[in-house]
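Cross-posted from the bioinformatics board.
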Amino acid sequence: MRFMKQSLLLLLVLMTIAPLTTGCWNRRELNELAIQLGTSIDKIGGQYRVAVQVVIPGEVSARASSSGFSPVTLYHATASTVFEAFRKLTETSSRKIYSAHIRVLVLGESLAKDGISEVLDMFSRNPEARTDFYLMVARNTSAMQVLKTLTSLEKIPAENLFYALDTSAKTWAPTTTVTIEKLIEQLVTEGRSPVLTGVKMIGNTQRGEELSNVQEIDPAAQTRFIGLGVFRRDKLVGWLNEEQSKGYNYISNNVKSTAGHMKCPNGGIIGMETLRNYTKTQADIVNGKPIITLKVKNVSSITDVECQIDLKKPETIAALEHESELKIEGIMKAAVEHAKQTYGFDIFGFGHELYESHPRVWEKEKETWNEQFKQLEVKYEVEVKIHKIGTTNDSFLNYVKE
Amino acid sequence: MEPSQKIDIKQMKVLLIFFIVGDLMWFLPSFTASASKQDAWISAIIGVVVGLGIASFIYGFSTKFPGMTLIDINRRVLGRFAGGVLSSFYLLHLLMNGSAQIRVIGDFMTTQMMTETPMRVVLFLFAAVVLISIRTGLPVIARTAQVFFMMFVVLFTILFLLLVPESEPHNLLPLASHNTAEMMRGGFFVIAFPFCQLTVFLMLFPLLEKEEMTFKSFITPVLYGGAAIVLVVTLSILVLGSFMTEHQIYSTYVMAKKISIGNFLQRLEAILVINYLLSTYFKCVISIYAFCRGVTILFGLSDYRVLALPLFLTMFGTAYVVSSDVVFLNSLGPAWALWEITEFLALIPFVYAMHLIRSRISGNQLGSS
Amino acid sequence: MSAILLISLLCAWAIFRECMPLVKKKLAKDAVVYMLLLLTGASLSICNIRLIEVPSPMLLLQAAYGPLLKWLGLQ
């Protein structure tokens, strides 16, 4: 009898508690959510226009055949703060937007020129938001346009942007990935300035929005990552071209693998691939003045011989290594000189390196650091090792006969 | 008092570790980092070293009065009335501590995980669990602690191991660039929060079953707890950097969000929240249990378990009253730390000094007469 | 309204199940302490559920330790 009473009571308690574990107030059914994968923020006339790219699950599922509709849909709204704009999106969308799976955040160029930090605070404060998405700035186009282009290999354009940036940052030096916490850290650290990769639309953007864009072999419109945008505090001040972006990434140790070319001793060019790269920035004080030394350790391989060169001799390899060291030094120097002349402030974070190794000297120098940067002496110590040359030793170009 | 409330030394050790690690996960990294930025780990080490000294002092104090709880000690040394007044201040302090811990959990749940849930629901559920634990008594609490201890250690190790790949050593540079005053300010929180609150164990020591607690078996769990503190603070600085540690309200949760191994072991932070909740729960239960026993002894009541239900309502209400919003609770940090230190100073050194004076006076009287 | 109902139900249950036996056993002190705690708890809980604004006792703490904190440089 007592056992029955106890077990009944236990059952009652469990039945009361079990529904509470689902979180009544925060209950969200899956079919009430619109899963957002890409966001873009533009500044139009002092207000923020937020456009979100929401996935339509039926179109991307592997089993159901795509019925010719677009796999994503776009909602946009304009309001004075970003969070209000997000809520205003429900004026158009049938479900509440769920932003935990965001992949890319595209910022418009005019917004970037006005300052990006107001926009970023919401993403840092929102408990739903995560920090593993990438940021980029749209060049010569509105940020919303970037999200409107259909892509063929990845069904969801936001995923395409994400993977394109990810892959290209790992294999091609002029681009780099920036997550929001890295950006905030660079914004708040003294002596560091953030950079963001730029994304451009090429081709006919109008046709890029239609399904015919992916029905052709050569799509009418595509997105392309070009150059790094330089920020002063939180405002965009300029763009680096391809060589300067390469130099910037070499200096900031962002290069994982890349390709380049240099001149052969006898004319012609030879292509090289960087397999591993490690750059260390060292700040020293010599005669009371700060000197920055950039130490690069690089392992490369030869990928593409387009000249007459004898690869069987070790001296050739040594000569090529030396040539490659000069080339990398030239790339970095070009970036540093460009920064000194065109921007006039420290975009590489040399100030922060000085702070990390000599904090007391930094306290004295930090007021006039930008002027000091223009005359800063930068030393380069590049060490390139060519370990591999591919599978053939001597190029057949040397042996072409009639 | 029925039934017997005796516990083992092993259980006491486990309770000690849970108590020290208890609150630290929530806000200790951000408090220490706000004072000494990237040198917070040095502050943590300083704080732990001083804290070990404080713990030894507490232990030494308890050996002078074997078998007596703090209330009895106060009454004996200071006389019934003055001792009673001091003890009631201490008991109020314990109630505030317990309620604040419930409140911290309520804040965390409604800020990070379930944002639209009203906080009263989380407070109600948590206070109900504490109520049930108090009614069942200390041996059951201690046994629960033993059962969950293994899981706690495993989850803590997982947190540590999985975050080592995410750490960036240059976040610690420049090393030791703050002067001693700033580092002491950081260490001040580490001293106050886990270590000065150890006076609550003076209420629990008389409940040890067989033998008395040796110094080694007291200081070892305190040492482990201190090591955990240093580890968590250092890891927070390494992984998040000093800016994020200082400005994120729950930095250990944000730290756990960053775990990502090979793109498949991700989003583990909810599992690690179990760790944090468990340790805070044990700290809360120990404080409220000590409060119950204290009230029983102070007013000479017969059974402490009777007080559990009104205490549930009081805890629930006080958890709401203690602060109007998250910002106020966090800004109370330094003042609360000072309160802990004054309570510790008023209870241990002051009472000990009184005891010495009294024994000297009575010794003189005996000697002279 | 539902809050007051809930709390008073809980109080009534508590009094009947716990306080009455205490009074029957003639433990006056127990009953008094019990009722005191119960009343404090009940009133605070009602404030919690109905979200009535109660000034926090921690303001006293802040006021008491304010000057010392400024001197220590922690505030």
